[in-house]
Amino acid sequence: MKVPKIVHEKYLYGTFDSRPNRFIARCAVPEVGIVEAFMPNPGRLNELLITGSKLLLEKANVSVQRKTEYTVCGVYKDNYLIGLNTLRTNDIAEFVLKRRLIPDLKHVRLLRREVPHNRSRFDFGVLVNGKNTFLEVKSVTLSGNKIAMFPDAITERGTRHLNELQEYSIRTDVETIVLFIVQGQDIDYFMPDFHTDLKFSQTMLEVRANVKFVPVHVQWNSDLSLSSSTKMLNIPWDYVEMMSKDRGAYILTFDIDRDAWVNVGALGEVFFQRGSYMYVGSAMNGLSARISRHLKRRKNKRWHIDYLLDIARNIVGIPIVAATNIESSVAKLLFDSYVPYAKGFGASDSCMDTHLFLTDKDAAKSAKFQNILMSLRLRNPFQKF
User: Fold this and answer.
1) 282 lies in which domain range?
2) Secondary structure of the chain: what % helix, strand, coil (to 5)?
3) Are 274 and 259 in contact (CB under 8 A)?
4) What is the pLDDT of residues 211-231, one digit of tens each?
5) What is the number of other CB atoms lying within 10 angstroms of the CB of residue 110?
6) 8 Å CB contact between 294 and 318
7) Whose CA is closest to 94, among 53, 125, 71?
8) Residue 42: is the preceding peptide bond cis (ω within 30°)?
9) Are residues 129 and 173 in the same domain?
10) Which pTM was predicted?
């Protein structure tokens, strides 16, 4: 088998401009201008697709009929290349498996690709100890602080795969396998992203006795071919179990379209200027329900934020799962980066003056905010907060 390359056709570089939908990225290409490129990765990729980020693009062969002339194949994070084309992840998996580059999977023999089973289609049918079984492949690009996490968007399909793999393993008494192909710089650990998809994380814990999880780090050579150097990553299961609970802190981002005076309960009349805001709260019992409540228009007013959200739009809730109450610590990070607003707002039991902050428009998409969020979410399992 040939060594996989991150690009197959002519390639060029551009910078990220915007993403109007999951499958399209607008990119600025020197001497060409703004072009629309196919984005073959359904993940959110918020920490990678920052305005101005350097992209590796593939230009389609002129004989190929398609809506977009370009495809986004990779992005550079701190000058480190990360592949984004999930349509080629199975090529990577097949290469490292056939070359026996994964110590834990040297006993696995590939049979065929895209094998249907019940309601699913698994990436590979394989042979383990003379028995037929399934191997599913997942592409991982979310990383930082020596940690990689998956998924970066809710994946009901991924959770269903785990349950079906467990059912098959129990019925046939043969292990099924999930191979995580991980990209990113300087990574030691892999964990499910309990912040983004708590159900997937809890399901991993439930099926781990029957499903083998294998996270493997891969990287690209300077000639854009896949390196034969791989690294097995550790899964800190005790930490994952401790963190896979519906509790922690959250950040709300929202906009206010006009200057307004708002009666904020015990705070009385408070003036709010037109602009974009972030608010920090916590829920150590029912984090997802708390965020969902904030997104509802009709509700009894209980907290300061309830009054302000009556005139807000574009409300987005960002969970940060934690085993202890980190609300004040999160507020401190935002205090150091944005404009504190409305003294006492949401801070009745906090050491901070306020938990409300005035920000730039679309601040949540900025590198500054994504760095803050990654510092909170990608916590080293052996590092104190």
Assistant:
1) 248-377
2) 25, 40, 40
3) yes
4) 999 999 999 999 999 999 999
5) 14
6) no
7) 125
8) no
9) yes
10) 0.94
